[in-house]
Amino acid sequence: MVMFLMVLCMSVFGLAISALAFGAATRGQAVEEQAPLSAAVDERLAAVPERFFVRDAAPEPAAALRLIPKVPIEVFLAQIERHIRLEQAAAESFLSAPSLESLHGRTVSPLLH
Amino acid sequence: MSIEQADMLNGVGAADAARLIALGSRLHVPTGAQLFELGTDAHDVFLIERGRLALTLPMRVGTRNEDVLVEERTAGQMVGWSGLIPPHRFTLKASAQIDTDVIVLPRAPLLEFFDANPAVGYLVLRNLASVVGQRLQVFQAMWLREMQRFVETRSS
Description:
The structure holds two protein chains of two kinds. Chain A has two domains: 1-57; 62-112. Chain A is mostly helical. Chain A is built from four helices and no strands. Chain A is rod-shaped and about 120 Å long. In chain B, α2 packs across α3. Chain B has helices at 14-21, 107-116, 118-155; strands at 25-29, 34-36, 44-50, 52-61, 64-74, 78-79, 93-96, 100-106. The N and C termini of chain B lie far apart (50 Å). Chain B is an alpha+beta fold. In chain B, 36% of the residues lie in helices and 31% in strands. Chain A binds chain B through residues 64, 67-69, 73, 76-77, 80-81, 84-85, 87-88, 90-92, 94-95, 103-104, 112, and chain B through 59-64, 66, 68-71, 134, 137-139, 141-142, 144-146, 148-149.
């Protein structure tokens, strides 16, 4: 009976020591492993666009800005009008003598140069 | 050029042309004034007797909407054929570049005249088809020229 109690006590004591040692050994390791993992995940998330197939970013105003002429608006409108007249003339020229050359012939429109 | 020689009346006899013109009324459009607006209901077609009309479409330039010239029509030519073709809505805006006189031909009496005189109706609508077809072909060619430039820009 005494022997049995002695073995039992030693087993409980050994178990407690093992538990403490395991706890001390794994506490630091868990912190070390989690830190690089979360850093890696953050980097990858940052690299992924807001949506996989569609950009969330609003349309860039640069496209609209490109349309703003650098010359006065009246001059720009006159250039557009001239361009349209020249294009119509070129189109009518194509219709009177249809050919690849007459279809894609260049005009002297200032908007094309 | 007399109005009886208008493109719309090509091939129509002088007497029939005069009867057709008599269905309309004359309207003076001062320089800069608007004859019809884009998107509005089209009840009439117009024959230009004198002057010049600009047909325009709106274009956004920077922050402004500007009317951009699409076509010009002068004496003897017709405008506003949307008045005869469903859904009877103007697809352009017309305004006078100089003092202009037009003959306004309302759709209802015009169609009644065509019903009563089918030979005249046939000729007028054939002339109309010619105007519409010519515009379509011109714009097809213009569109293709623009697409060609787009392709060249993208591939360069």
